[in-house]
Amino acid sequence: MRFKDNKAIYLQIADLLCDDILHQKLLEDERIPSVREYASQVEVNANTCARAYDLLQNQDIIYTKRGLGYFVSVGAKSAIQKMKRKEFMDETLPDVARQMVSLNISMDELTQGIIKYQSGQSPK
């Protein structure tokens, strides 16, 4: 797997797992791959993967059952949505707003672009 240089790999792994939960590839109370299995899948050191799992466990996104492995926590999807929404509003939206102002993009143009994106069309 290819990782970006601007963000720690363990954070990117945590994001991948969160995306799988958001897109319901991993469901609540479902077992997720072990640290070693997932590390092998994404081609990273098991310690890096363990760090991502620890982070997600501390955020109550996943939990462990002794001897059985890691599982997706009940309410994980809504917790991730809440966390990602805050991150979007605090970090992404200010940049988007700045770009809109500097490029003179109206709210109507933005809305139309989002509608096209949601329908699978290229927003031009």
Provide structural commentary.
The protein is mainly α. It has 5 helices and 2 strands. A two-stranded antiparallel ribbon has the order 1-2. Strand 1 and strand 2 (69-72) form a beta hairpin. The longest helix is centred in the C-terminal third of the chain and has 28 residues, at 76-103. The two termini are 30 Å apart.
Q: Features of this protein?
A:
60% helix; elongated; single chain; two-stranded antiparallel sheet; 124 residues; mainly alpha
Layout of helices and strands:
Blueprint: H1 9-22, H2 35-42, H3 46-58, E1 62-65, E2 69-72, H4 76-103, H5 107-118
Antiparallel strand pairs: 1-2
Helix pairs in contact: 1-3, 2-3
Question: What gross morphology would you assign?
Answer: elongated
Strand order of the largest sheet: 1-2
Distance between the termini: 30 Å
Distinct helical segment count: 5
**Unreliable residue runs:** none
> What is the string of helix and strand elements?
HHHEEHH
Short description:
This protein has 124 residues and is mostly helical.
